[in-house]
Amino acid sequence: MRHGIHPVSRPVVFRDRASGFRLLTRSTIESSRTVEWEDGATYPVVDVEISSAGHPFWTGTSRAVDTAGRLERFERRYGSRH
């Protein structure tokens, strides 16, 4: 295998912003922010909008994710959902 052509894989923490769930795994993604893990070590952290801990398919609950006021615009045009 050729050396120097593959990205470096390192431990990274992915954090679900909605539920607070955190997962330590290996990734090639880079982040300037860091977080301290349970073992006392500091790892780069990447915030994600949704994970299996908060996804409606896995939790059995529904949740409306509003990005840039799209939900309000829809409700103004077509009426409220309730």
UniProtKB/TrEMBL annotation:
Subunit record text: Part of the 50S ribosomal subunit.
Family annotation (SUPFAM superfamilies): L28p-like
Superkingdom of origin: Bacteria
Cellular component annotations (GO), alphabetically ordered: ribonucleoprotein complex; ribosome
Family that this chain belongs to: Belongs to the bacterial ribosomal protein bL31 family. Type B subfamily.
PANTHER family in alphabetical order: 50S RIBOSOMAL PROTEIN L31, CHLOROPLASTIC, LARGE RIBOSOMAL SUBUNIT PROTEIN BL31C
HAMAP family linked: Ribosomal_bL31_2 (MF_00502)
Source organism (scientific name): Streptomyces haneummycinicus
Protein name: Large ribosomal subunit protein bL31B
GO molecular function per UniProt: structural constituent of ribosome
Higher taxonomy: Bacteria, Bacillati, Actinomycetota, Actinomycetes, Kitasatosporales
GO biological process: translation
Gene name tied to this protein: rpmE2
InterPro entries assigned to the protein according to its UniProt record, in alphabetical order: Ribosomal_bL28/bL31-like_sf, Ribosomal_bL31, Ribosomal_bL31_B, Ribosomal_bL31_sf
Pfam families tied to this protein: Ribosomal_L31 (PF01197)
